[in-house]
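Data card: per-record layout.
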Amino acid sequence: MTVWGGSLNKKGTNYLRKIHEADKVVKFLEEFKHLVEKKDKQIINETINILVNYITELGEREKIEEEND
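The structure for this 69-residue chain is written out next.
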């Protein structure tokens, strides 16, 4: 399980909503991965990594924006 943080201002609320949605997708993919063939598991793992990296980048941008405000 991956955990991300964020503030609760308007931008932070949108960020947290995106995190929640991404977390639901990652959880689904983790479960779904057990139902597919081995070659497809790698594709699912790559998709999960893309989502995790995207949300991590959003978090880093959010942190930089908060520091600049």
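Known properties of this structure: Residues 8-14+38-69 form one domain. Residues 38-68 form the longest helix (31 residues).

See the next section for split statistics.
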